[in-house]
């Protein structure tokens, strides 16, 4: 327990900042030891920088002021990490010849850094100056954003095959291969993206461990859950900004800054948007938050009083007495014992595992939901990003805030928080069936899902009707034939001529399109228009509606589980407990989530890009049905595991016997709801 241990006194009122007066505090019955003296452990002070404490910034020296600044930093972190990165994944794959397994590593790099540092930052920072740790967060998140944009400036101009003839020429339109020994791939930029993600992960580590614990230090229990719920809910605005702004930026051509003009439009599959602009802006804005965080005091006014009146709800396994007697956390040598006490807390570990499997789902979908929508419903990358953000962000924000509000409104204690999370998780797993009912089948694609008008074979783009065209396999420019079938390009459709209808290309004399009565006879309707065929699937609205409630019910448990973790451990180990939680979340959830989702999505690919050197790159087309069934299997299995661990935590939790408020619960330590 932090501060003076005084279990006989409870505080039922709300702590404000204006009515706080240290001269009117009740003295404890026993004199605290020097190590426990609240004046030393919870040193309060004004906002400022050293001796410079201007009066204009003192209005921020309260939980509300900290909430505003914390939310702004969380928004910028979410904009870069959970918004922009996820939106531009598809563009990065195409620009730098990466598959989804590798881009999953980019998405996971943030979590790798977080995982490596969370224990040390949360342990050594729990007694340190938490706001200054968050100033360090702003430095690293901004730096990581800048690094992430670097590949754009060193990769040269984007070449999309415009030097090739885009229709069938018997003499051959396939350009000679590059000197592949010199390397034509940009895949080595993968390491730069990973470095940027690692730097942002370094910055994000204090944000969700020390930053969250600072709320719990400064507020009574029933109010801290509300503030944390609001903060987590507002943090979801970041991904919203990333999705919406990032989606709009993808409508700007990737090399507009280099003076390159193109005849492509955003609806062209070869179009790549300016994915890098958002990271530059995000880095600049994040660095503007360094000064505000560095001015906050080590503890806000009122912290000492709140800590002296706190009633422990820690799991009754004897760890609290060890923490108090040894005053753990004062030196580096306490680290092994402090970690051992937390790892031996079964409630903490089971709640942490429950969080891991929720994080596994959310990070996987956050990384690939735009790509899923883009391929399932044949939408552009930018529009898919906007739709994905329009579902993920409001759903997550509503869930986070609603969870915090419910816990605060009903003043749930630890066991009731777990019970509530179990009930909501059951609802969530039932809603994941949306992937069965809202999936779309693939539209006809010559050589991929259907044969070339009865010739050729599935899985082979070459057929007798285009055998004399010498088409370039790396020149993906789909056309929609008058027969309703999509073709890889006008060349693979066997089109011999082209004309413009307004600004749209129309190809004619296409030997692979239409009905054939003889080997060389061509139908008069053998035409094709540039672009993919319009999909016949109309399940988009159904999918978006159901998936919104999946997100709400998934995120509504985040705040109750976080608060249960803060309550089931000794007060002096709260920051460290969050560090342990986030370590496991990264190891078992956030890191493998995007990677496994990427591997699963890659396994459903039915048409890979083959570059000029014959190397396999990004995927052009997926098996939609297989993708849907694969994702529902992952989601349902993860949610079932979440429920299982929550149920175990509910059964084994024992409130401390010394607390009069929880002693009645200790007589009911069983699994009845």
Protein model, in words:
- A five-stranded antiparallel beta sheet has the order 2-1-5-4-3, with no helix packed on it. Strands 6-7 form a two-stranded antiparallel sheet.
- The N terminus is likely disordered.
- By secondary structure, it is mainly alpha-helical.
- A hairpin with a 2-residue loop joins strand 3 and strand 4.
- It has two domains: 512 residues, Up-down Bundle (Growth Hormone, Chain: A), CATH 1.20.1250.20; 67 residues, no CATH class.
- The chain is elongated and about 85 Å long.
- Helices cover 52% and strands 5% of the residues.
- It is a multi-pass membrane protein.
- It comes from Xenopus laevis (African clawed frog).
- Keywords: Cell membrane, Disulfide bond, Ion transport, Membrane, Transmembrane, Transmembrane helix, Transport.
- One of its GO terms (cellular component) is basolateral plasma membrane.
């Amino acid at each position: 327990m932090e501060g003076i241990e005084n279990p006989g006194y409870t505080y039922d009122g709300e702590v404000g900042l204006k009515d706080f007066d240290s001269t009117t505090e009740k003295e404890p019955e026993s004199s605290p030891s020097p190590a426990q003296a609240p004046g030393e452990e919870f040193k309060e002070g004004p906002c400022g920088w050293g001796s410079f404490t201007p009066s204009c910034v003192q209005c921020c020296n309260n939980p509300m002021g900290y909430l505003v600044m914390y939310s702004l930093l969380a928004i910028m972190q979410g904009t870069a990490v959970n918004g922009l990165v996820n939106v531009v994944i598809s563009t990065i794959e195409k620009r730098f010849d990466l598959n989804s397994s590798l881009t999953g590593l980019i998405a996971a790099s943030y979590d790798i850094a977080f995982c490596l540092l969370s224990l040390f930052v949360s342990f050594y920072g729990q007694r340190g100056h938490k706001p200054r740790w968050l100033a360090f967060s702003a430095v690293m998140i901004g730096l990581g954003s800048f690094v992430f944009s670097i590949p754009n400036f060193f990769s040269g101009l984007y070449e999309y095959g415009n030097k090739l003839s885009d229709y069938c020429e018997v003499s051959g339109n396939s350009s000679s291969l590059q000197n592949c020994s010199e390397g034509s791939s940009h895949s080595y930029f993968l390491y730069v993206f990973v470095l940027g993600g690692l730097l942002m992960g370094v910055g994000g580590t204090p944000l969700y461990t020390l930053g969250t614990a600072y709320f719990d230090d400064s507020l009574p229990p029933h109010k801290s859950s509300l503030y944390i719920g609001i903060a987590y809910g507002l943090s979801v605005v970041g991904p919203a900004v990333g999705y919406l702004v990032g989606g709009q930026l993808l409508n700007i051509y990737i090399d507009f800054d280099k003076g390159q003009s193109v005849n492509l439009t955003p609806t062209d599959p070869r179009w790549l948007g300016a994915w890098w602009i958002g990271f530059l802006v995000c880095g600049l804005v994040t660095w503007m938050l360094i000064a505000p965080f560095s001015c906050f005091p080590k503890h806000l006014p009122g912290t000492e009083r709140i800590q002296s009146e706190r009633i422990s709800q820690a799991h009754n396994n004897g760890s609290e007495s060890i923490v108090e007697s040894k005053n753990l956390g004062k030196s580096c040598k306490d680290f092994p014992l402090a970690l051992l006490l937390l790892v031996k807390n079964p409630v903490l570990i089971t709640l942490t595992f429950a969080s891991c499997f929720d994080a596994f789902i959310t990070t996987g979908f956050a990384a690939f939901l735009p790509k899923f929508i883009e391929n399932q419903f044949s939408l552009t990358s930018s529009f898919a990003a906007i739709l994905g953000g329009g579902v993920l962000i409001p759903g997550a924000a509503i869930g986070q805030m609603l969870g915090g509000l419910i816990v605060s409104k009903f003043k749930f204690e630890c066991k009731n928080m777990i019970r509530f999370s179990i009930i909501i998780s059951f609802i969530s797993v039932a809603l994941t069936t949306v992937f069965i009912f809202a999936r779309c089948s693939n539209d006809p694609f010559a050589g991929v899902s259907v044969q070339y008008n009865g010739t050729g074979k599935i899985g082979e783009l070459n057929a007798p009707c285009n055998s004399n065209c010498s088409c370039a396999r790396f020149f993906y420019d789909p056309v929609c034939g008058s027969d309703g079938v999509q073709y890889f390009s006008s060349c693979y459709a066997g089109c011999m001529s082209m004309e413009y209808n307004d600004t749209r290309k129309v190809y004619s004399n296409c030997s692979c399109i239409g009905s054939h009565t003889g080997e060389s006879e061509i139908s008069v309707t053998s035409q094709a228009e540039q672009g993919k065929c319009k999909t016949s699937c109309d399940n988009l609205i159904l999918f978006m509606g159901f998936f919104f409630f999946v997100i709400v019910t998934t995120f509504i448990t985040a705040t109750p589980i976080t608060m249960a973790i803060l309550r089931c451990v000794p007060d002096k180990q709260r920051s460290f407990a969050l560090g342990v939680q986030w370590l496991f979340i990264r190891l078992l959830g956030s890191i493998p989530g995007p990677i496994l989702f990427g591997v699963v999505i890659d396994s459903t690919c039915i048409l890979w890009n083959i570059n000029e050197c014959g190397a396999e790159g990004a995927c052009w087309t997926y098996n939609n049905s297989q993708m849907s069934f694969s994702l529902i299997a992952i989601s349902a299995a993860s949610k079932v595991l979440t429920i299982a661990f929550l149920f175990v935590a509910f059964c084994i939790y024992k409130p401390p016997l010394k607390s009069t408020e929880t002693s009645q619960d200790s007589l009911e330590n069983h699994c009845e709801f």
